[in-house]
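Per your request, structure below.
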């Protein structure tokens, strides 16, 4: 027998064509009400849930991929911005090495975030959705086999009701009916077991995908916040470096006489720093007063000897009683509002210098 295609003979092709024709005829008769149709309301409800589940899962996959693409775009934009800053940052500026390290750490953080979304959230959704094509195909096959079963049932019934009974045809029709029923019921039972399990599995998939995403988001933003604070500190120190150079250049052009006058002024200011900053009354300032600062960030005290800062608070910075106790980046002082009200020496505390700005 000649082959029509790989694995498909003319005989098989003819059988398939006949099956499609028989199914089409059966469906027409059912729609016209001339043949009854096997119905399973519970199964139809399961299929409806399956279709809803597949649509929702596909949308979740699509939106996760869009989010992943957005993270990749932000990573690329961040890298270009860091490269731009690195190119502009001159070797003698403050924190050149720290700036290079910060750029590398930022790039690594973005890479890890993108990879975690792919491996932990998107991959689980992809695996979940890979089940649907096979089950969808078996649902469609079950529907075709149900039509075959109905057709065989009707054919067998019509032969039994005929005036001239052909026992050979009736026996063959009964055999075909049994075979069609067996194939249909095997598929039907399998799907009735699998569809409810698949429906229930969606909760675990959603929890895993979003819980994993939320965890990686929290970690990413926490670590990125630290890097951003480091960048802010470097920029602040760079600005201070610029001001110091500016002051040094200005002082160098004033001449020896101006330098001497400045030195005398500094000695005078050192001997009486309080009167140089207030209305002239030493009683308005705490002992050891140096200068005033303004809080530019909120700071939550984590120890009993620390000051709690709110945006805009004015702090009177004072010298440490024991200079050896002063840590780099920390100052000692009183909240101005508290000092003016109570004049209580016990209310002083330490606070981070980079959370404030000298005024």
């Amino acid at each position: 027998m000649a082959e029509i295609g790989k694995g498909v003979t003319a005989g098989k092709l003819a059988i398939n064509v006949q099956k499609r024709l028989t199914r089409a005829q059966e469906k027409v008769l059912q729609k016209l009400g001339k043949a009854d149709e096997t119905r399973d309301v519970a199964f139809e409800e399961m299929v409806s849930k399956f279709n809803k589940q597949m649509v929702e899962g596909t949308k979740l996959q699509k939106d996760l991929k869009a989010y992943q693409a957005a993270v990749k775009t932000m990573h690329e934009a961040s890298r270009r911005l860091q490269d731009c800053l690195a190119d502009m940052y001159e070797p003698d500026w403050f924190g050149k090495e720290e700036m290079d390290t910060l750029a590398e750490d930022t790039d690594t953080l973005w890479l890890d975030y993108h990879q975690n979304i792919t491996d932990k959230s998107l991959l689980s959704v992809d695996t979940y959705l890979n089940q649907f094509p096979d089950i969808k195909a078996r649902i469609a096959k079950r529907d075709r086999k149900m039509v075959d079963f109905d057709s065989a049932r009707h054919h067998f019934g019509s032969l039994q009701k005929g005036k001239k009974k052909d026992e050979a045809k009736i026996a063959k029709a009964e055999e075909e009916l049994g075979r069609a029923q067996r194939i249909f019921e095997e598929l039907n039972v399998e799907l009735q077991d699998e569809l409810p399990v698949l429906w229930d599995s969606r909760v675990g998939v959603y929890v895993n995908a979003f819980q994993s995403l939320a965890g990686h988001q929290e970690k990413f933003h926490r670590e990125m916040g630290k890097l951003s604070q480091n960048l802010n500190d470097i920029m602040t120190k760079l600005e201070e470096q610029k001001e110091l150079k500016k002051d040094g250049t200005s002082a160098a052009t004033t001449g020896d006489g101006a330098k001497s006058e400045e030195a005398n002024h500094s000695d005078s200011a050192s001997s009486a720093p309080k009167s140089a900053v207030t209305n002239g009354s030493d009683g308005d300032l705490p002992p050891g007063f140096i200068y005033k600062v303004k809080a530019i960030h909120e700071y939550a005290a984590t120890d009993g000897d620390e000051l709690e800062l709110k945006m805009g608070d004015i702090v009177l910075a004072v010298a440490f009683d024991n200079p050896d106790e002063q840590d780099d980046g920390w100052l000692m002082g009183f909240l101005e509002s508290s000092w003016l009200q109570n004049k209580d020496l016990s209310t002083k505390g330490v606070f981070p210098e980079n959370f404030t700005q000298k005024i």
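Helices lie at 10-31, 41-88, 96-129, 132-161, 167-252, 255-271, 336-342.

Regards,
D.
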